[in-house]
Amino acid sequence: MGKVYLTGAGPGDIELLTIKALKVVQKADVIIYDRLANPEILKEAKDRCEFVFVGKEDSHHTLPQEEINEVIYQNALKHEVVVRLKGGDPFVFGRGGEEGIYLKERNIEFEFIPGITSAVAVPEYAGIPVTHRGVTVSFRVVTGHENPKKGKSQIPWENYKSDDTIIFLMGLHRLEFITKKLIEIGKPKDYPVAVISRGTTKDEKTVIGTLSDIYEKAKDLPTPALIVVGEVVKLHDKLSWWEK
Ligand code: SAH
Question: Residue 234 is part of which domain span?
Answer without folding.
Answer: 118-239
